[in-house]
Amino acid sequence: MPYSDVNRADPVEAARGIINRHFPGCTVAILSGSALRHVTPTSDLDLVVFDASCGDVFRKSFTDGGWPVEVFLLQQESYRFYLDEAAYSGVPSLLRMCAEGVVIKDDGSAAAFIQEARECLLEGPPEWEDNDSRRCRYQLSELLDDFIGGENGAEHMFTISRIVLLLSEFVLRSNRCWIGGDGKWMSRALEDFDPDLADGLLRAVGLFYSRSDKEPLIQLCEEQLAAYGGRLFEGYEE
Fold first, then answer.
1. In the chain, which end has fewer C-beta atoms inside a 10 angstrom radius, N or C?
2. Three-class SS of residue 181?
3. 185: domain range?
């Protein structure tokens, strides 16, 4: 994403101009994202747009007026597919954009769509299927073995990164919580669900990098796995 100067048009006004120039025939447009709360040099504009003329295109990214713009294109006939997909994946990005955004353009149908997104967001993701839970336990078990037996610092970096992401997803989905997404969003989701666990995970990783102490991260992972059946290897199949 390109760096942008903070001296840009107001996000709402900029979004209205973008809709008029790029999607004049759309029926609904919703602006969301961090730019509505606090503009930084790297802030972008996230837009959900209902526009039947865009065909099968779902996502467009471009720059306009100094703003990086990400547009998610939906159609009245198929938008439910994307809401269901978001719920199944546990990643509520699109739902949050619709539920928490500012309506820029409306033909009268926005309210019903926004309410639907809010209800879906409030309900939470569906219960994780047993196959998904077992697969995650199996993968975490293998990663822990790699971490315990490994001696290569570069390999540890990638293994730890994968452990942190997979363990966070495992805990959140096992408790029917949204995983937020990648990077900062998953960190925030874990912090919201269990601040002590989020802090413990951060400290455990820090202790390995500062003191080469593996035990805190190993113990934390095994404690979390124990609550859902423990490590898994023997008898696993898919």
1. C
2. coil
3. 130-226
Q: Total structural domains in the chain?
A: 2
User: Are 107 and 157 contained in the same domain?
Assistant: no
Tokens of 134: 């077992």
- In sequence order, the β-bridge partners of residue 71 are 47, 60
99 and 20 part of one domain = yes
Say what the pTM is. 0.86
Per-residue pLDDT of the chain (238 residues; tens, 9 = 90+): 444 455 688 999 999 999 999 999 999 999 998 888 888 888 899 999 999 998 887 899 999 999 999 999 999 888 888 888 988 999 999 999 999 999 999 999 999 999 999 999 999 999 999 999 999 999 999 999 999 999 998 999 999 999 999 999 999 999 999 998 878 889 999 999 999 999 999 999 999 999 999 999 999 999 999 999 999 999 988 8
| CATH code at position 45 | 3.30.460.10
